[in-house]
Amino acid sequence: MTSTFKISDNKDEKCRVGTLEIGEKSYLTPSFMLYTKEGSPINLTKDLLNQLPHEKTHSLQLLFSDLFQFTDVLEKFEQGVHKFLALQDHLLFLLIRDSSSFVEAEFNDDSISVTTRKGKTKITIQDYIKLVKVIKPDFVTSLSVDIAWETSKKKATKIVNSSSIWLEKFLEANTGINTFGVIQGGKFEDLRMKSLQDLLKNKDRLVGTILSGFGTGETNEERNQLINKLIDQLPKEHVKLISGVGSPEEILSLVELGIDLFSTNYPNLMTEWGNALTFKYKMNELKNNDNQEENKINLWDSKFVIDATPIIKGCECFTCIQHTKAYIHHLLNTHEMLAEVLLTIHNVSHYLGFFEEIRRVIKDSQFSEYKKLFLEKRIQINNNSNSNDN
Model's pTM, two decimal places? Predict the structure, then answer.
């Protein structure tokens, strides 16, 4: 099913609000994809997913390596991954890179290496085309592998050339799936530009572009400088997606450059550490300069043992409405899985609210002011935290 991407005009800045539509599903950007394992959102059942505040339709990142081992089942099922996973109401993106970790995959002229439960398997472009037709996601990346920032130029050149050939073959197969092209090249600007020019030859057959290989050792300045140059030459109507970066600071810097969609596991990473996100993100709160002690709290801390307050008073998520810090602290210390469920609900909801506010300030032409206030608050809190530690 063909998608459309409608962009709200923002003449003064590169950041923009978009609406990605496919069938009856409508999804607002900038936003982030929910992280999954083997097709399921981590710690969230379908009912919990559908009850999250701020958005009704979510985008989910499905890892090719997770689904590859089940393609024989999906082939027999014949009705596609949406119905198989009971995720018909949401947008499903089939990606190759796992945003939770970076492992540089092996590849050659004909194939890439995919790691599954059964070990490493080589996937050719013909295999990939066949499997994409079986999985039937809403969106898919053309075949490629991420390479690290410091990869040698010889290796970077090889993946740029291979990715270009694979893109041509994938598009020729007419899978009927909305396709994202991939810009490769590591730290080498000339290779990035070659990859971009190869992609532009097929720009009208693509719905978006993945800026690949970031979050692999580069500095924020290096990343932003290169992305800024690339986005200037990409079609305005393309959805711009990036994987592997997703902290609040990174989000704001990249939204400012024109990134629409983030493949990140940041909220889930916070959950793994027992952290609950508490940073203030509403413009009026940042302007009021209210005292905010921390950007996140660690609920393993014994100071929460009898704290009968919610993580954030007034938060609309199920966790904050129904439960207390003390209860989640208890669940963590007794190693109950419910602790991770409740933290995931809150952290994902908090990040959804953060992006909702980003979209609002872009619409109101306040993004630059918002970013300045937000980052000043983050720095202030981090400095206070460091002072208290000394």
Answer: 0.95
